[in-house]
UniProtKB/TrEMBL annotation:
Subunit description: Homodimer.
GO molecular function annotation: dTDP-4-dehydrorhamnose 3,5-epimerase activity
Pathway(s): Carbohydrate biosynthesis; dTDP-L-rhamnose biosynthesis
Organism name: Phocaeicola acetigenes
Protein name, entry field: dTDP-4-dehydrorhamnose 3,5-epimerase
Catalytic activity: dTDP-4-dehydro-6-deoxy-alpha-D-glucose = dTDP-4-dehydro-beta-L-rhamnose
EC number: 5.1.3.13
Taxonomic lineage of the native organism: Bacteria, Pseudomonadati, Bacteroidota, Bacteroidia, Bacteroidales
Functional summary from the UniProt entry: Catalyzes the epimerization of the C3' and C5'positions of dTDP-6-deoxy-D-xylo-4-hexulose, forming dTDP-6-deoxy-L-lyxo-4-hexulose.
Length: 190
């Protein structure tokens, strides 16, 4: 796999090595050994999958400690714009984001470390989205910030009148109004 660095340290794009021939293709989508030596030494404990249609926007979500999560995400079918936002107070990249298109064609994966809010918008008629998490989901630990916070400046690549949100995602605070954020100086992997 090829590790592609982004503008924010530790937020990484992973490009797998694809073997294609007349029969189709094959690639190793995950190797704990390679991931731990090339990206970060963590252990994923939960895999999730979602199916969504064009215009669905999920996010921007995170889990607070002690249930903070790193995520490794990819698209099985369709295409999304995937976004990670640095919400670590004191970070030199606080409030900045990285956005990458993940698709069934490019096979890219996106690693979002703990301390970041995550979301995605669906760019095709249908998407099947998978993600690995290094901590179990805990509903009491949910946190989120507004997808449309103007201070974040995220272009979700969907007209705002076409965005489809869950009822919960319609009511998250802007980053400046968030009651809880991560501390950049805290080791979130202890």
């Amino acid at each position: 796999m090829e590790i592609i660095k982004t503008e924010i340290k530790d937020v990484l794009i992973i490009k797998p090595r694809i073997f294609e021939d007349a029969r189709g293709y094959f690639f190793e989508s995950f190797s704990e050994r390679d991931f731990n030596t090339q990206v970060r030494n963590i252990h994923f404990v939960q895999d999730n999958e979602s199916k969504s249609s064009y215009g669905v926007l999920r996010g921007l979500h995170f889990q607070k400690p002690p249930f903070a999560q790193s995520k490794l995400v990819r698209v099985i079918k369709g295409a999304v714009l995937d976004v990670a936002v640095d919400i670590r107070k004191g970070s030199p990249t606080f409030g900045k984001h990285v956005a990458v298109e993940l698709s069934e064609d490019n096979h890219l994966q996106f690693f979002i470390p703990r301390g970041f809010a995550h979301g995605f918008s669906v760019l095709t008629d249908e998407v099947i989205f998978q993600y690995k998490c290094d901590n179990f989901y805990a509903p009491q630990s949910e946190g989120a910030i507004a997808w449309n916070d103007p201070a974040l400046g995220i272009d979700w690549r969907i007209p705002s009148d076409k965005v489809i949100l869950s009822e919960k995602d319609k009511h998250h605070p802007f980053l400046e109004d968030a009651e809880w954020l991560f501390d950049y100086n805290e080791d979130l992997y202890k």
